[in-house]
Design goal:
tRNA processing, 3-stranded antiparallel beta sheet, 384 residues, 14 helices, Rossmann fold
């Protein structure tokens, strides 16, 4: 209500931190912010955003989530597209400053601006995901393509065939998701510089996470090393070796702050699978144990298209890793996560727990009616 009352006299910043989905607050939030105002949004319903309930995700966020090793980044991009959709209804658009997946929630920091032309161009920042059900390769399909002048044109597609070209399995489709940048690297650097001058209890963790974010490539989604090698039933190489294979092939690679075994790269999926096949050639998998229709056999029997070298590349080990920064937080206890929703009763007369109130509920319901309350017996009709 407060946000709707300030659509003329607007705020400079709004922070939404609800328990669960923030969707119901976004409509008012994008209207009550001044031009260039800061919107901070937290979402804790990660089970929905991470693919456990795609139909629920569509109801809450207007997008279908997918089960994927990159689910945390997909969650961030679903939330950003949802904010962009709310802003677009009022001729406004978003510019993400920082988007983080940490612990059991995601949090985004975006600026809200007014501008019809930019709103229309945001179509090119949205897209669908095609995920193979066999090898889990993900392909992006933008909803629009930028013109040389203002505006967007319709894309051509789909970018995949009915069956995956690597393993001949079908695809699942999810989205739409945000395809634009997750972070403003200039803002991240300023934030990092300011934190280094402060003495905070969590300074080491903040510096570590922001350092990884500062190294992230501006490329949607990522692979996970152990999952790639699990698909082809092969021994897992070291992270430095695998990164060197991609770098020596002429592509860039980085970590994602959302997963310590992530491989974020601008290399096409074909090159990534070439690196996997090159490693498997050096450390053969037991192909006789692979099923005839398994994704692993289809991938490994295909001929590689380029030569891959695993010689150590100078950029294979990033600075944040060399300096042993606290980049990824370890859970303090087993099964650590969000607590249950608060059930505190404010009224002292209602302090009796639900369990106590419901004691003998069924017994009371089925108590025998006393003889005085029973209806009189029906009289039998006489035959006279």
């Amino acid at each position: 209500m407060v946000m709707y009352q300030h659509r003329k006299k607007r705020f400079d910043a709004v922070d939404l931190d609800p328990y669960g989905c923030p969707s119901i607050f976004l409509d008012g939030a994008v209207q009550c912010l001044a031009n260039g105002g800061l919107l901070l949004v937290t979402a804790t319903d990660m089970a929905v955003l991470a693919g456990n309930s795609p139909e629920t995700c569509f109801v809450k966020y207007g997008a279908v989530s997918l089960k994927s090793k990159a689910c945390h980044e997909i969650a961030l991009r679903i939330l950003l597209q949802h904010i962009a959709a709310h802003a677009g209804r009022y001729g406004r658009y978003i510019v993400p400053l920082l988007s983080v997946s940490v612990d059991f929630y995601i949090r985004v920091f975006v600026r809200i601006y007014t501008g019809q032309i930019k709103c229309k161009e945001n179509t090119s920042n949205l897209g669908m995901i095609y995920q193979c059900t066999g090898c889990e390769t993900m392909t992006i399909h933008p909803l629009g393509m930028k013109k040389l002048n203002a505006g967007c044109k319709l894309p051509v597609g789909p970018p995949v065939d009915q069956l995956c070209k690597f393993c001949r399995y079908k695809h699942h489709m999810g989205g739409p998701i945000w395809l634009g940048p997750l972070h403003d690297q200039a803002f991240v650097k300023q934030l990092l510089d300011s934190i280094e001058t402060l003495e905070l209890a969590t300074s080491k963790r903040l510096i570590g996470v922001l350092s990884v974010i500062g190294e992230e490539l501006d490329t949607p989604l990522y692979y996970v090393l152990d999952r790639l090698m699990s698909i082809v039933r092969c021994d897992t190489p070291s992270m430095v070796k695998f990164r060197s294979g991609l770098l020596n092939a002429g592509y860039n690679v980085s970590f994602s702050h959302a997963n310590k075994l992530s491989i974020k790269t601008n290399a096409p999926a074909e090159i990534v699978w070439n690196v996997v096949k090159a490693w498997e050639k050096m450390h053969p998998a037991k192909r006789e144990k692979l099923g005839k229709e398994s994704p692993a056999l289809a991938i490994l029997t295909a001929q590689p298209t380029i030569e891959i070298s695993f010689d150590l590349h100078p950029a294979a080990n990033p600075e944040s890793r060399k300096l042993h920064m606290q980049r990824f937080q370890v859970n303090p206890t087993a099964n650590w996560g969000p607590g249950a929703r608060s059930t505190t009763i404010v009224d002292p007369r209602e302090k009796t727990s639900k369990r106590q109130r419901n004691q003998n509920k069924h017994k009371k319901k089925h108590q025998h009616i006393s003889p005085s309350d029973s209806p009189p017996p029906k009289q039998q009709k006489s035959n006279v």
